[in-house]
Amino acid sequence: MPKFLIERNYAEELEVTKDGALEIVRINNDEGVKWLISFLSADKKKTYCLYEAPNADAIRRAAKRANLPADVVIEVSDVNPALFA
């Protein structure tokens, strides 16, 4: 399945509750989107998230339904450090 890197910019510090996270997972499942990992900036106003999804539109639909920004959505591929050893 294709992988996508999503940059999300927030006006305020990001705070996620357990209930909020569960709702996001439900929405992602509905759209065929799977969250893999996220990185949170030091100021807690930006995240970089890696997802598996059938296409970029599924990422955008899930973000819109979850009321989350998806400012940049880029399809990416794996680069393994072992390739350069």
Write a structural description.
The protein is α+β, with helices and mostly antiparallel strands and 85 residues long. The chain has one domain (3-77): Alpha-Beta Plaits (2-Layer Sandwich). Helix content is 28%, strand content 31%. It is built from two helices and four strands. The protein has helices at residues 18-31, 56-65; strands spanning 3-9, 34-40, 46-52, 72-76. It has a four-stranded antiparallel beta sheet with strand order 2-3-1-4, with helices on one face. A hairpin with a 5-residue loop joins strand 2 and strand 3 (46-52). The chain is globular. The mean pLDDT is 91.
End-to-end separation: 27 Å
Number of helices: 2
What class would the helix/strand composition place it in? alpha+beta
Would you state the CATH class?
Alpha Beta
Supply Rg: 13 Å
Mean pLDDT: 91
Poorly predicted runs are none
Amount of beta strand:
25-35%
Shape: globular
Q: What is the number of independent domains?
A: 1
How are the strands ordered across the major sheet? 2-3-1-4
Output the CATH homologous superfamily: ORF SCO4226, nickel-binding ferredoxin-like monomer
Largest sheet: 4 strands, antiparallel
Write the H/E string, N to C.
EHEEHE
DSSP strand tally: 4
CATH-scheme architecture: 2-Layer Sandwich
